[in-house]
Amino acid sequence: MHSNGSHRTEPSTTADEREMLDGWLDYHRATLAWKCEGLGDEQLRLTLLKPSELSLLSLVRHMAEVERYWFREIMLGEDLPELYCSQEEPDGDFHFADGDTWADAERVWQTEVELARQASAGRSLDLVSDAAAHHRGEVFSLRWVYTHMIEEYARHNGHADLLREHIDGSTGE
Protein backbone atom coordinates (compact mmCIF):
# COMPACT_ATOMS: atom_id res chain seq x y z
CA MET A 1 0.00 0.00 0.00
CA HIS A 2 1.36 3.42 -0.92
CA SER A 3 1.75 5.56 2.15
CA ASN A 4 0.10 8.55 0.51
CA GLY A 5 -3.00 6.89 -0.96
CA SER A 6 -1.94 8.07 -4.40
CA HIS A 7 -5.36 7.45 -6.02
CA ARG A 8 -7.17 9.77 -3.60
CA THR A 9 -7.73 13.39 -4.51
CA GLU A 10 -6.88 15.89 -1.80
CA PRO A 11 -9.83 18.25 -1.24
CA SER A 12 -9.33 21.83 -2.33
CA THR A 13 -8.21 24.19 0.41
CA THR A 14 -10.11 27.13 -1.11
CA ALA A 15 -13.32 25.56 -2.44
CA ASP A 16 -16.79 26.81 -1.70
CA GLU A 17 -18.80 24.94 0.93
CA ARG A 18 -20.45 22.40 -1.39
CA GLU A 19 -17.26 21.56 -3.26
CA MET A 20 -15.43 21.24 0.07
CA LEU A 21 -18.04 18.86 1.51
CA ASP A 22 -18.13 16.76 -1.66
CA GLY A 23 -14.31 16.74 -1.76
CA TRP A 24 -13.89 15.57 1.83
CA LEU A 25 -16.62 12.95 1.55
CA ASP A 26 -15.10 11.54 -1.65
CA TYR A 27 -11.64 11.61 -0.06
CA HIS A 28 -12.86 9.50 2.85
CA ARG A 29 -14.74 7.12 0.56
CA ALA A 30 -11.51 6.63 -1.40
CA THR A 31 -9.57 6.10 1.82
CA LEU A 32 -11.77 3.17 2.85
CA ALA A 33 -11.41 1.63 -0.62
CA TRP A 34 -7.63 2.10 -0.39
CA LYS A 35 -7.48 0.34 2.99
CA CYS A 36 -9.14 -2.71 1.39
CA GLU A 37 -7.03 -2.69 -1.79
CA GLY A 38 -5.03 -5.80 -2.65
CA LEU A 39 -6.51 -8.06 0.05
CA GLY A 40 -8.40 -11.31 -0.45
CA ASP A 41 -11.81 -12.22 0.95
CA GLU A 42 -10.29 -14.10 3.87
CA GLN A 43 -8.15 -11.12 4.93
CA LEU A 44 -11.04 -8.68 4.51
CA ARG A 45 -13.16 -10.83 6.86
CA LEU A 46 -10.58 -10.89 9.67
CA THR A 47 -11.75 -9.52 13.03
CA LEU A 48 -8.41 -8.74 14.64
CA LEU A 49 -9.45 -6.18 17.25
CA LYS A 50 -11.25 -8.42 19.74
CA PRO A 51 -13.78 -8.18 21.26
CA SER A 52 -14.91 -6.00 18.34
CA GLU A 53 -16.49 -7.70 15.34
CA LEU A 54 -15.04 -5.08 13.01
CA SER A 55 -13.45 -6.26 9.79
CA LEU A 56 -12.68 -4.37 6.62
CA LEU A 57 -15.51 -6.22 4.89
CA SER A 58 -17.96 -5.29 7.65
CA LEU A 59 -16.90 -1.63 7.49
CA VAL A 60 -17.64 -1.52 3.76
CA ARG A 61 -20.99 -3.23 4.27
CA HIS A 62 -21.80 -0.83 7.11
CA MET A 63 -20.93 2.22 5.02
CA ALA A 64 -23.18 0.97 2.21
CA GLU A 65 -26.04 0.86 4.74
CA VAL A 66 -25.13 4.33 6.06
CA GLU A 67 -24.93 5.92 2.59
CA ARG A 68 -28.32 4.43 1.72
CA TYR A 69 -29.93 5.49 5.00
CA TRP A 70 -28.83 9.12 5.20
CA PHE A 71 -28.94 10.21 1.59
CA ARG A 72 -31.90 8.23 0.27
CA GLU A 73 -34.09 7.25 3.20
CA ILE A 74 -33.67 10.35 5.35
CA MET A 75 -33.06 13.10 2.78
CA LEU A 76 -35.29 11.80 -0.04
CA GLY A 77 -37.80 9.94 2.13
CA GLU A 78 -37.43 6.72 0.14
CA ASP A 79 -38.81 3.60 1.82
CA LEU A 80 -35.98 1.12 1.27
CA PRO A 81 -35.23 -2.26 2.83
CA GLU A 82 -31.97 -2.56 4.70
CA LEU A 83 -29.17 -4.19 2.74
CA TYR A 84 -27.72 -6.49 5.39
CA CYS A 85 -29.53 -5.78 8.65
CA SER A 86 -32.95 -6.92 9.84
CA GLN A 87 -35.08 -7.02 12.98
CA GLU A 88 -33.63 -10.46 13.73
CA GLU A 89 -30.09 -9.42 12.78
CA PRO A 90 -29.65 -5.69 13.57
CA ASP A 91 -25.88 -6.01 13.04
CA GLY A 92 -26.16 -8.01 9.83
CA ASP A 93 -23.63 -5.74 8.14
CA PHE A 94 -21.02 -7.16 10.56
CA HIS A 95 -22.03 -10.84 10.18
CA PHE A 96 -21.32 -12.80 7.04
CA ALA A 97 -22.62 -15.90 5.35
CA ASP A 98 -20.16 -18.24 3.66
CA GLY A 99 -21.10 -16.92 0.23
CA ASP A 100 -20.61 -13.23 1.05
CA THR A 101 -17.69 -11.84 -0.95
CA TRP A 102 -15.68 -8.65 -1.24
CA ALA A 103 -16.75 -8.33 -4.88
CA ASP A 104 -20.42 -8.29 -3.87
CA ALA A 105 -19.89 -5.91 -0.93
CA GLU A 106 -17.79 -3.51 -2.99
CA ARG A 107 -20.36 -3.50 -5.81
CA VAL A 108 -23.20 -2.76 -3.36
CA TRP A 109 -21.17 -0.05 -1.59
CA GLN A 110 -20.13 1.66 -4.82
CA THR A 111 -23.74 1.51 -6.05
CA GLU A 112 -24.93 3.17 -2.84
CA VAL A 113 -22.20 5.81 -3.12
CA GLU A 114 -23.33 6.63 -6.65
CA LEU A 115 -26.99 6.72 -5.61
CA ALA A 116 -26.05 9.01 -2.70
CA ARG A 117 -24.28 11.34 -5.12
CA GLN A 118 -27.39 11.39 -7.32
CA ALA A 119 -29.63 11.98 -4.29
CA SER A 120 -27.67 15.07 -3.27
CA ALA A 121 -26.82 16.45 -6.73
CA GLY A 122 -28.30 19.87 -7.37
CA ARG A 123 -29.99 20.03 -3.98
CA SER A 124 -29.43 22.87 -1.58
CA LEU A 125 -27.39 22.18 1.54
CA ASP A 126 -30.28 23.90 3.34
CA LEU A 127 -32.72 21.18 2.22
CA VAL A 128 -34.34 19.67 5.32
CA SER A 129 -35.60 16.11 5.62
CA ASP A 130 -39.15 15.20 6.50
CA ALA A 131 -39.53 14.44 10.21
CA ALA A 132 -41.42 11.26 9.36
CA ALA A 133 -38.29 9.79 7.71
CA HIS A 134 -36.40 9.47 11.03
CA HIS A 135 -37.46 7.09 13.82
CA ARG A 136 -37.28 9.88 16.44
CA GLY A 137 -39.00 12.43 14.23
CA GLU A 138 -35.91 14.61 13.92
CA VAL A 139 -35.19 16.69 10.84
CA PHE A 140 -31.77 17.05 9.23
CA SER A 141 -30.33 19.45 6.70
CA LEU A 142 -28.36 18.07 3.78
CA ARG A 143 -25.40 20.05 5.20
CA TRP A 144 -25.72 18.08 8.47
CA VAL A 145 -25.87 14.78 6.54
CA TYR A 146 -22.67 15.63 4.66
CA THR A 147 -20.90 16.57 7.87
CA HIS A 148 -22.12 13.43 9.61
CA MET A 149 -21.03 11.23 6.70
CA ILE A 150 -17.53 12.75 6.75
CA GLU A 151 -17.38 12.08 10.51
CA GLU A 152 -18.68 8.52 10.04
CA TYR A 153 -16.08 7.72 7.38
CA ALA A 154 -13.27 9.39 9.33
CA ARG A 155 -14.05 7.35 12.44
CA HIS A 156 -14.30 4.08 10.54
CA ASN A 157 -11.23 4.85 8.46
CA GLY A 158 -9.33 4.96 11.78
CA HIS A 159 -10.63 1.45 12.44
CA ALA A 160 -9.62 0.46 8.91
CA ASP A 161 -6.09 1.82 9.53
CA LEU A 162 -5.70 -0.44 12.56
CA LEU A 163 -7.18 -3.48 10.84
CA ARG A 164 -4.97 -3.08 7.77
CA GLU A 165 -1.84 -2.67 9.89
CA HIS A 166 -2.72 -5.87 11.79
CA ILE A 167 -3.35 -7.75 8.55
CA ASP A 168 -0.16 -6.98 6.64
CA GLY A 169 1.71 -4.17 8.38
CA SER A 170 0.61 -1.53 5.83
CA THR A 171 0.18 1.96 7.20
CA GLY A 172 -0.65 5.35 5.81
CA GLU A 173 -3.15 8.05 6.41
Protein described:
The chain is an all-alpha fold and 173 residues long. The protein has a single domain (17-168), classed as Four Helix Bundle (Hemerythrin (Met), subunit A), CATH 1.20.120.450. The protein is 52% helix and 0% strand. It starts with 16 loop residues before the first helix and ends in a 5-residue tail after the last helix. The mean pLDDT is 93.
Concise structural overview:
This protein has helices at 17-36, 41-45, 56-74, 102-120, 142-168. The chain has 173 residues and is an all-alpha fold.
Question: What's the layout of helices and strands?
Answer:
Blueprint: H1 17-36, H2 41-45, H3 56-74, H4 102-120, H5 142-168
Helix pairs in contact: 1-3, 1-5, 3-4, 3-5
Please compute the radius of gyration using only Cα atoms. 16 Å
What's the average pLDDT?
Answer: 93
Structural class: mainly alpha
Q: Name the CATH architecture.
A: Up-down Bundle
Overall shape: it is: globular
In DSSP terms (H or I, runs of 4 or more residues), the helix count works out at: 5
| Count of individual domains | 1
Task: Give the helix level as a range of percent.
Answer: 40-55%
What does the main sheet amount to?
A: none
Estimated share of beta-strand residues: under 5%
Helix/strand order, N-terminal first: HHHHH
Low-confidence stretches: none
Per DSSP E runs of 2 or more residues, the count of β-strands stands at 0
The rounded distance between the terminal residues' Cα atoms is 11 Å
Query: What is the CATH topology descriptor?
Result: Four Helix Bundle (Hemerythrin (Met), subunit A)
